[in-house]
Amino acid sequence: MNFENSARLYAQATEVLANGVSSGLRRRVSTPPLYFKRASGPYFYDVDGNELLDYTLGWGPLIAGNAHPAIHKAVVAELQKFTSLGAQHEGEIALARRIIAAVPGVEQVIFSNSGSEAVQAALRVARAATGRGKFIKFEGHYHGWFNNVLVSYHPTPEQLGRAAPTCGGQPAAEYQDTLVLPWNDKAALERAFSEHKGQIAAVITEPILANSGSCMPEPGFLEAVIALCKTHGAISIFDEVITGFRIALGGAREYFHLRPDMSVYAKAMAGGFSISAVGGSRAVFDALRDGRTIHAGTYNGNPVNIAAALATLELLSVPGSYERMHRHGQAIREELERCARAKGLALVTSGTGTIFSVHFGLAAAPKRYADILKADAALYDNFRALMLQEGLLLLPEGRWYVGLTHGEPELGKTRDAVRRCFDKLKA
Asked: In the chain, how long is the greatest CA-to-CA distance?
């Protein structure tokens, strides 16, 4: 494939955009970073005329594909009424009711605009509700780019076992109350509560470690998070920015039959529009109602984004939607593993059908971030580059997203591309 126009535009961008791109991680998707003219369903069309079958889903939000007519119609209708209000409208009530009906155990919600914001809102409410300052997160888990949570996101082997900043500009004072533990380790969690009695406000976790290898929770671990929080007076928080409305309409609560105190939602919630939410029991939000803390934001509850979310959840509510998406992803996983075996390569996939990761060099599915460090990332990068030449757009680090518009034609194209790439792949 030819990417000359993308290379030219990226050269121009580096002159005027400090990072060359608008989010730093995007530079890692391809060389050069690709520029797109339009997108439709599961396909992106770049400035060089290439059609690319997309399994990035815009880093997750595009669960209904790009430019879905139902979402488009809802947004256009809303724009005929208003753009933004900074005030109340009926859509807020409608979306809150829709989420409460879909997500087990959620009685009330608050809205914001990004996953990063919603995580901070959840932590603030938890701290105000408990009167405590410390919280626990886990190695490899991503909870947004704020300094207090961008800790031990992708630590080096030498940084395992302690709270480590992820980038420059993170003063230690801003994450001194962030306790970092290995995931899927109930004993470590018990020790932390014992060593910091009466000090821990919350435990926050991705219910599936989607951001670092799509590691699945060990049997009983998520239950232990919820139970230990309850025992020690802390708040359990599931960060479902990725898993929410993706692995099931009710997210991880439905998928694992669990009820944490709070859950955070974003990405798949509005089909590409910017909105997020925190859901929980009515009691957990008492700290907002009685004035112990606040939740604010000019764009919270923006009517256009609310309309997109309502339309997206309507699409996802169609019977059979999740079964179809999971089957599609599982079929790809099986093809990848079959081709690797035929080539004599160690490869495992992990996660679900709608969100999964591919690991070269591993003999067993990873259980925590430290396991991911043993995978052959360079070989996956080579595979991904070959897939790009076959017309498939994939994210770095092995993560795949599957959405509603990935159908049988796309599955056939993907399987064929996987076979050809393994034929060319050099270990």
From this structure: 63
* 54 included as an active-site residue: no
For residue 312, give Cα distances in angstroms to 50, 73, 152, 273, 307.
28, 11, 33, 10, 9
Residue 418 · residue 336 · CB < 8 Å: yes
Please state the rounded mean pLDDT for residues 209-221.
Answer: 97
| Catalytic annotation, pick one of 267, 322, 367, 401 | 267
Q: For this structure, is 142 an active site residue?
A: yes
Residue 350 confidence (pLDDT): 98
**pLDDT class for 290, splitting at 50, 70, 90?**
very high
What is residue 280's three-state secondary structure? strand
Contact 121, 110 (CB under 8 A): yes
When pLDDT is averaged across residues 376-400 and rounded to a whole number, the result is 96
pLDDT of residue 427: 73
Beta bridge partners, 278, equal 110, 264
Q: What is the pLDDT of residues 147-201, one digit of tens each?
A: 999 999 999 999 999 999 999 999 999 999 999 999 999 999 999 999 999 999 9
What's the pLDDT score for residue 28? 87
Which pTM value belongs to this model?
Answer: 0.96
* All domains in the chain, ordered by first residue: 4-67+319-424 (3.90.1150.10), 69-316 (3.40.640.10)
Tell me which of 185, 239, 261, 371 is the catalytic residue: 239
Cα–chain center distance at 78: 27
The active-site residue, picked from 10, 142, 153, 175, is: 142
Question: Residue 106 to residues 208, 254, 406: CA-CA distances in angstroms?
Answer: 19, 11, 30
Calculate mean pLDDT across residues 83-96. 96
User: How many angstroms separate the Cα of 206 from the Cα of each of 17, 225, 238, 326, 363?
Assistant: 32, 11, 6, 19, 24
Please tell me the distance from the alpha carbon of residue 413 to that of residue 123, in angstroms, as a whole number: 43
Whether 239 is catalytic is yes
